[in-house]
Structures are given as structure tokens and as C-alpha cells.
Amino acid sequence: MANYITESLYYIILIVPRLNAKELRKSKPTNEDLAIVKRNPIYFVLDNIIDTYNIGSLFRLADSVAATKMYLCGKMEYPPSSRIHKAAVGTEAWVPWEKEKSVIKLIKRLRDKGIQIIAVEQHPQATSYKLLATKINLPVAIVVGNETDGISKEVLDEVDIIVELPMYGINRSFNVWGSAAVICYKILEFLPITNR
């Protein structure tokens, strides 16, 4: 165990760059730069996200957890975008991503690869995020939906688990990237240390 921790610290200090916001905004990573990031078995599926601040924040979150890939689906803004770049603080250049037309087809493709599909949504059949440990099978894809309408019924019918954060005030739901962050860091508890 001590060797593993020492190796992880060596990896963090000497190999993985830790860039501040100014450096990130100006960075243009090469394929070699991208290859040094140890990716965690977490994927993001963005379903028709409207707000570019949320899209950028989800890129920043995906970088924070060293996600394998992000899929941007439906009618939304895509990089390159100055608005996404500003919110992402340049992390959209460091996170592998793809544009997809159909969320349903993507979910089926990911499931065929053995990836468990988790939707983050307020729903009568949702599981509390606190119980995620009993239901999770890695790798996972986290589906987050539109800020106004959430995730469509058609997409929810295709996912393996619907998970929600309890809301104790009058607001019905939490911000899309904030909800995804809570779920991601809960999932990271089940993973060995990589970039931490």
C-alpha cells in the first residue's frame, strides 16, 4: 500500500500538470499531453443542455474527476464556443468528447460495451444517491438532462438506475452540474486512487 501511495504521489507531482485557470485557458494539449491523464471509468452524457455555463461547468467537472469521455447530445451548443470555453476554463480541450445526435442510440451502444447507465433526475422510482454503493457497477455513464424539462421519459426508460438528490427546500431540483458533481464524487469513493 505504501508503494502504491508513493507511486501515485510521484505520478501526480511529476507527470500530471496542474494548471491554474489562466494556464488552462491558454493551453492547447497535444495527444501526448492527453495520454498522460489516467482516466476513471466515468462517462458523461449531456442530454440537450441549454445553458453554456452548465456545459462548461460539466467539462470542468469531467476534468476534475478524470472522466473517460463526455458525450454532447441533441440541440445544444458545442465547442469551440467562447461561452463554453469561459465556463470550462479551457478544460474542454483536456476532456475527450463527442457530438451525438441520439441519446437513446448512444445509451444502447454504451450498454453494449458493459457500461452501466445512471440518470440523475427527480423521479418517483429514483434511488437516493446515498444508496448508490449498493447498485453501482463500473464503468458508469452519468446522464444529465435539460435544465427546464430534465431527462425525457424515453431516455429514463432506457437507463439502468435513476438516482436523485433529496431536496429539502421549496426548489424542485438542484443545478445540473452540481447534481452531477455530487454523484461523481460518490462514485469516486468506490475507485482506487488514480489522479488524486
Strand order of the largest sheet: 3-2-1-6-4-7-5
Distance between the termini: 15 Å
So how many helices?
A: 8
* Approximate strand percentage: 15-25%
Overall pLDDT metric: 87
Keywords: Methyltransferase, Transferase
Protein name: tRNA/rRNA methyltransferase SpoU type domain-containing protein
Domain tRNA/rRNA methyltransferase SpoU type: 42-185
Organism: Candidatus Woesebacteria bacterium RIFCSPLOWO2_01_FULL_39_14
Task: Give a brief rundown of this model.
It holds the Pfam family SpoU_methylase. The chain has 196 residues and is α/β, with parallel strands linked by helices. The protein is built from 8 helices and 7 strands; from the N terminus they run H-H-H-E-H-E-H-E-H-E-E-E-H-E-H.
Describe the protein's architecture and organization:
The protein is of the alpha/beta class. It has one domain: 3-Layer(aba) Sandwich (Alpha/beta knot), CATH 3.40.1280. Helices cover 37% and strands 18% of the residues. It has eight helices and seven strands; from the N terminus they run H-H-H-E-H-E-H-E-H-E-E-E-H-E-H. It has a seven-stranded parallel sheet, sandwiched between helices. Helix 4 packs across helix 5 and helix 4 packs parallel to helix 8. The longest helix is centred in the first third of the chain and has 14 residues. The two termini are 15 Å apart. The N terminus is likely disordered.
